[in-house]
Design a protein that fits this description.
320 residues, mainly alpha, MetI-like fold, two-stranded antiparallel sheet, 68% helix, globular, transmembrane
Length: 320
């Protein structure tokens, strides 16, 4: 008689290996998240040495936030994000397209990749301190402009709305365009070269190739980049916090939502801070949903193949 072989199941080891992650997520993320939502319905703050609450107030914290300057700070956050993101995505797309185009035969690609990514390794606080020192009224930028005779008096970059917002946007651009470029390069390199060769045989120009072939096929990565950028923009804190010393000057035009949230945490107003956190969560969820639907809503397989085929047909018709 043949002995039956005892089958060994290794499925349980997978659950054992991922168990530490779920334990840490439950303790350090899920419980604080639920607690934050719970506190948003309570009046809970410190007045001097006296602690008020927690007293259940329902939706009062949410209503109070709508009557505060929250919407103004939301507008500031949006403006600062747009100033940094638009040049970031444009430059990243151009660099990624150039570095992955085999026809250009660019030498030293690895060196350029490292140089482009280096600013991403610098801490945001160090970046903010560097720009604060460079663009102050007694900083090297004003000294250089004065010595060249281009200006007669030092420019107060941090004293104007345009100057402060531009510096915040410039720092966000410099810190993140390298990371975006590397991701887009990986996405473009994942496209089959046969598609590019076919479009060249059909007479597509470089511009048509970029807009009709490359962009539709990297839509999932573009969606990911846009979603992570939106989340990062809503969480913008360290750069404007350090650059404006936490005041959002001038006239709080560079005060972001997270800086507003931090002010509630410093005053130990946990109820208002919790309500603002819930608002941020809802807004980020809605924005990410719309971005995903706009960038991937018409795909039949999630990889842009349907859009790419349609665009390729349009390009061929235009050539004829």
């Amino acid at each position: 008689m043949k002995k039956k072989r005892k089958s060994v199941s290794y499925a349980k080891w997978g659950y054992i290996f991922i168990l530490p992650f779920f334990i840490c997520f439950f303790i350090f993320s899920l419980i604080p998240l639920v607690d934050t939502i719970r506190y948003s319905f309570f009046e809970y703050y410190r007045s001097g040495i006296k602690e008020i609450g927690p007293n259940f107030v329902g939706m009062q914290n949410y209503i109070s936030l709508l009557g505060s300057d929250m919407l103004k700070y939301a507008g500031n956050t949006l403006i600062l994000w747009v100033i940094g993101f638009i040049p970031q995505i444009v430059v990243a797309l151009l660099l990624a397209n150039w570095f992955t185009d085999i026809r250009l035969k660019i030498r030293g690609k690895q060196f350029f990749k490292v140089v482009i990514y280096l600013p991403n390794l610098i801490m945001a606080s160090a970046f903010a301190m560097l720009f604060f020192a460079m663009f102050s009224t007694n900083g090297p930028i004003n000294s250089i402009l004065t010595s060249l005779g281009w200006i007669s008096e030092p420019i107060d970059f941090l004293g104007s709305v345009f100057g402060t917002r531009s510096l915040v946007g410039l720092m966000n651009f410099l810190m993140w365009f390298g990371n975006t470029t590397i991701m887009l390069m990986a996405a473009i390199m994942g496209i089959s070269q046969d598609i590019f060769e076919a479009c060249e045989l059909d007479g597509c120009t470089s511009v048509k190739r970029f807009f009709y072939i490359t962009l539709p096929l990297i839509r999932p990565i573009l969606a990911y980049t846009l979603i992570t950028s939106i989340i990062g923009g809503l969480q913008m804190f360290d750069v404007p916090q350090i650059l404006t010393n936490g005041q959002g000057n001038p006239d709080r035009t560079s005060m972001t939502l997270i800086m507003f949230l931090n002010s509630h945490l410093e005053s130990r107003n946990y109820g208002m801070a919790g309500a603002l956190s819930v608002y941020l969560f809802i807004v980020s969820g809605i924005l990410c949903f719309f971005v995903y639907r706009m960038t991937n809503g018409n795909n039949d397989d999630g990889y842009g193949s349907k859009a790419a085929k349609r665009k390729l047909k349009e390009a061929r018709k235009g050539r004829r």
